[in-house]
Amino acid sequence: MGFRYSTYIDSDGVTAFTYGCGGCRTHLSSSNLILSRDYRGRTGDAYLMDKVVNIVQGSKQIRQMITGAYLVSDIRCHQCKNLVGWKYHHTDSRDQKYKEGKYILELQTIVKCNSKQKQKMMY
């Protein structure tokens, strides 16, 4: 099998925080990539993110949500396969187009990581 390459997000912990998978703490995104904190996921509160790393995407499916129908795919941590949210691929609604290519991270599935803690865990 071999090692899986993971992108490391270095945040100072003061002006920006790193968010990691709740299952294994693999880095997923940074607080300076949050577009909105006013979202709800399947498990509760969620963030709309501009970019997420170290994930695998599931198959695309049409999902009906409060604001309309979207073509989305679930996203999972690439290390432990924990479900952490979804990616918006397409919507027909013109006023929701800004979500295309963006990600939802559900707060119940992620943790705030201390970059120095993650570094210690790796060795």
TrEMBL record:
Record keywords, A-Z: Metal-binding, Zinc
InterPro entries cross-referenced by the UniProt entry: Yippee (IPR034751), Yippee/Mis18/Cereblon (IPR004910), Yippee_fam (IPR039058)
Keyword Zinc among UniProt keywords: yes
A Pfam cross-reference name: Yippee-Mis18
Domain Yippee span(s) in chain numbering: 17-114
MF (Gene Ontology): metal ion binding
Family statement: Belongs to the yippee family.
Protein name: Protein yippee-like
Species lineage: Eukaryota, Fungi, Dikarya, Ascomycota, Saccharomycotina
